[in-house]
Amino acid sequence: xxxxxxxxxxxxxxxxxxxxxxxxxxxxxxxxxxxxxxxxxxxxxxxxxxxxxxxxxxxxxxxxxxxxxxxxxxxxxxxxxxxxxxxxxxxxxxxxxxxxxxxxxxxxxxxxxxxxxxxxxxxxxxxxxxxxxxxxxxxxxxxxxxxxxxxxxxxxxxxxxxxxxxxxxxxxxxxxxxxxxxxxxxxxxxxxxxxxxxxxxxxxxxxxxxxxxxxxxxxxxxxxxxxxxxxxxxxxxxxxxxxxxxxxxxxxxxxxxxxxxxxxxxxxxxxxxxxxxxxxxxxxxxxxxxxxxxxx
Amino acid sequence: xxxxxxxxxxxxxxxxxxxxxxxxxxxxxxxxxxxxxxxxxxxxxxxxxxxxxxxxxxxxxxxxxxxxxxxxxxxxxxxxxxxxxxxxxxxxxxxxxxxxxxxxxxxxxxxxxxxxxxxxxxxxxxxxxxxxxxxxxxxxxxxxxxxxxxxxxxxxxxxxxxxxxxxxxxxxxxxxxxxxxxxxxxxxxxxxxxxxxxxxxxxxxxxxxxxxxxxxxxxxxxxxxxxxxxxxxxxxxxxxxxxxxxxxxxxxxxxxxxxxxxxxxxxxxxxxxxxxxxxxxxxxxxxxxxxxxxxxxxxxxxxxxxxxxxxxxxxxxxxxxxxxxxxxxxxxxxxxxxxxxxxxxxxxxxxxxxxxxxxxxxxxxxxxxxxxxxxxxxxxxxxxxxxxxxxxxxxxxxxxxxxxxxxxxxxxxxxxxxxxxxxxxxxxxxxxxxxxxxxxxxx
Lengths: 296, 443
Description:
- Chain A is an all-alpha fold.
- Chain A is 77% helix and 0% strand.
């Protein structure tokens, strides 16, 4: 009994500081955001704050810019999620098979992950510039100079590709860990049965990696939804708002235009949306698992 | 019991965390130089101490304290800020909420209106006509909201239409006088003439971009002003009929014609002007120093800013920079005004010029700096600022006006969207932001 009490005090002492800091800097701000979202809180004049009910929410859905930002974000997600997940899996498979310079490749693909996003964005602005490396290379094979981030059509895919390049190494390492954890006996058995490489991949590798896939899928999706640094540094959300994202809109509204109330409502909508999406994703993936278990 | 213990620990930790945050007033003797009987004036500036700019501020404050020894004591706090102004303005916003503002703050010129409209800053104590007349008109204009003077700066800024003398001589083009600048039509003709010459050099007649951020409205709003309109009404509370008026649409169309006729590159090319591949460039006054220091091969000239065909001779060229203002928390407005005047006076302006090469704000300072009489490019920039300087739109929703201007410009000039409908859309967006102020006025 006594040791129990000591244990409990010890436990509190360990997680107490973290709890206090989390409360102060995470839970409290989250709660305040929800409260502010029902007011017209204006940073320059907090005294004039009124309770406005759901007005912010109805304003947001009427706001053309918010809708544009929403669809831009969805476009980013639709490009980044498949490209980054499949890219990471592909790279992991290749590196796993590599016999020489394995470490070199691992490090090389991982380096962009540890670089600051602002630095990477500036680097790619040089690569994408009208007289930059990429256009010089295109000119070599007879393709005329492309505007990339300076055109409303190409800016979004250009930034998405850059983001995939930047982030893919992280998921690759996760997949690599997963691949190395697969019991080699499974492959040996498959080879005895003359299973082809594709069959081995489809029936051994993929099912074994399944839980990891779900994790990667969800984290990449949430990461892509949070896109802001790249467009902010590279295009400022333009040209013609073609790379203006949800989080960017929240930032502009709250910090640049000082409308904390409206920005809070946007943030709440954003969070709800991401939560719904995550639930859908996990339900979909779980369902399949359950079914395949049932079959067995 | 268990609960009580955990609650106790929790409270203890919370108290420990919070106790570090409390801040007490500075008392005489706490800071070196602050003596009994002196009135404390606290001030925030938007830069860190270890920059040339910070050094200039520090020296000005020191000389203020010497000069007003026994009467006032100014205590300056340096607050870092990033390129886009974050950091410092976040601190101001947070302090507005917590009520911790100092007596004097620095404000970027275009934000004076918003800060005044929201009661963050208060009008300065009355200045004599003689004191006012020492400042450039543009400085007084920038600091005045609804007839009251709120802010005075030690720095001014300007944008030049720079030209490459060698290229213009090759094309046989003469530079007009400041009182008879090129009109849009004339400028287009010149660009047309330069186009084949520049094509040979693998360049464009004009090195121009419409960057995101403050630069676009700063560089290109003169095209609107010289067309005889403003982007917002006099009161700063109306945009319909201003932002979406015909002269603004015409200016936007003019920029579109620059892109369409390939007088400029649609996608920005680095160092086009600096490498001798462009005849003209719009850029801040700092460009003169850059060219002198890093590109001595370029023979640089400053041409008068281009005007609309209907220009009536009024003020139209870019201005604006950081200024000092007294916050509404300043209890002793006389003391705060004294500090604002000191920080923006001739001596402080000279100090800033010396350390950062930024343009001063007083006539006296320009007279004392040789380069503004001896170097023709600096002289042109000064004369343009003195005779034709125009402040940026004075409205509490300036940030929205600035972003809308850039977005409209980009959409119309680069993507070829319909000028009127783009401007109408922007106007609607700005109007939505103005609602708050109109409502206040009615209340």
